[in-house]
Design a protein that fits this description.
By secondary structure, the chain is mostly helical. It contains 14 helices and seven strands. 52% of the residues lie in helices and 10% in strands. Strand 1 and strand 2 form a beta hairpin. Keywords: DNA integration, DNA recombination, DNA-binding.
């Protein structure tokens, strides 16, 4: 067996001898030594005893200081349930593009879903990207690995008649969540935003409310309040007379509560309960099964199909940019294209007649 020894600088400014043995040939030892010297030359911090598992665990502890609890819970699951069991024993400096490709290939062959693997890969790439920026690695082994994007989900949208039938069914059966569904359908708010709504942010006389928080679940069990999805989500939402009436009814049903929608004891409604109850009511009403989030799509579809200007619809949905609205609902915007060219035609006719 062959051994190499080399003096390397440490973080405290001193030098320390690094000695590694167990190489079967002199050439192998020379390759390993050359790699160490190259890392030192390019400023890479060397710690060849740190495994991928050790690094990812340390990375998670750092990310916990800045991430939302829900995002942190997802990262923790991807790291500890997926990445560490399969590539955790590899030394960090030895992790290669081929290791990551093999991990993805084996998981696909085992039947893992493409969406889950894309998220695991994104987590790993984010962690390795930080290692590169911190001069811990020379390159990101996961950066150029890809997983086929699954077929894009096409939201199923109710017609206005179906939405009206659903709300009538809820009202006729004195459903406690009727006012919640009126709010989501009538404004396009996200479910978590509606569940996190506080009366202090509702101004019925002005027919507006302000979105400040969203309610999410950690590991499908622990509800937490976090900031909304994007900065643009923190905004005013207009209220129609119908939605304002529903909120007024909710205030009379649950007086002296800080939150608009709660359980009997005043605790926040659980998102999974709302989804389960929504599916029950949908089935009872004989309507197509959809997600609660598809009620937001209903609101958007109804606005755009009713000739509401794109900019106004985008503002109501609180999308970050107009392009976001266009990307999601581009198939509904044919009337915008027709209106645009008709405007040109009208201008030309007027000019010719002058």
């Amino acid at each position: 067996m062959w051994t190499y020894a080399v003096d390397l600088p440490t973080l405290d400014g001193k030098r320390r001898t690094r000695r590694r043995s167990g190489f079967p040939t002199k050439a192998d030892a020379q390759v390993a030594l050359s790699k160490v010297l190259e890392y030192e030359r390019t400023g890479i911090v060397i710690d060849d005893r740190q495994t991928v598992a050790d690094y990812l665990a340390s990375w998670l502890r750092t990310k916990a200081l800045t991430l939302k609890p829900t995002t942190m819970a997802n990262y923790h699951a991807y790291v500890h349930k997926d990445l560490i069991p399969h590539i955790g024993l590899i030394r960090l400096e030895d992790l290669s593009h081929q290791h990551v490709v093999l991990y993805i290939r084996n998981q696909l062959e085992a039947g893992r879903g493409h969406t889950t693997l894309r998220r695991c890969l994104a987590t790993l790439s984010s962690a390795l990207g930080d290692a590169v920026r911190q001069h811990r690695l020379p390159y990101n082994a996961a950066r150029y690995v890809s997983v086929t994007r699954p077929t894009k989900y096409e939201p199923v949208c109710w017609s206005p008649a179906e939405a009206a039938l659903f709300l009538k069914h809820c009202a006729d059966h004195h459903e406690p969540l009727t006012n919640l569904f009126e709010l989501i359908i009538g404004t396009g708010m996200r479910k978590g935003e509606a569940l996190a709504l506080h009366w202090a942010d509702v101004h019925l006389e002005e027919h507006v409310l302000f979105v400040r928080q969203t309610l999410s679940n950690i590991n499908n069990s622990t509800p937490v309040f976090t900031t909304p999805k994007t900065k643009s989500s923190l905004a005013w939402v207009g209220l129609s007379n119908r939605v304002a009436a529903a909120l007024q009814n909710q205030a009379e049903r649950q007086p002296d509560r800080a939150m608009v929608f709660t359980r009997r004891g005043g605790q926040p409604l659980r998102p999974e309960y709302v989804l389960h109850r929504f599916h029950q009511l949908t089935e009872q009403a004989g309507l197509p099964r959809i997600r609660v989030h598809d009620l937001r799509h209903f609101a958007a579809t109804t606005m755009l199909s009713s000739q509401v200007p794109l900019a106004m619809a985008s503002k109501t949905l609180r999308h970050t940019t107009l392009s976001t609205t266009t990307e999601i609902y581009g198939h509904l915007l044919r009337h915008v294209a027709l209106d645009a060219v008709k405007a040109i035609e009208t201008a030309l006719k007027e000019a010719e007649a002058a």
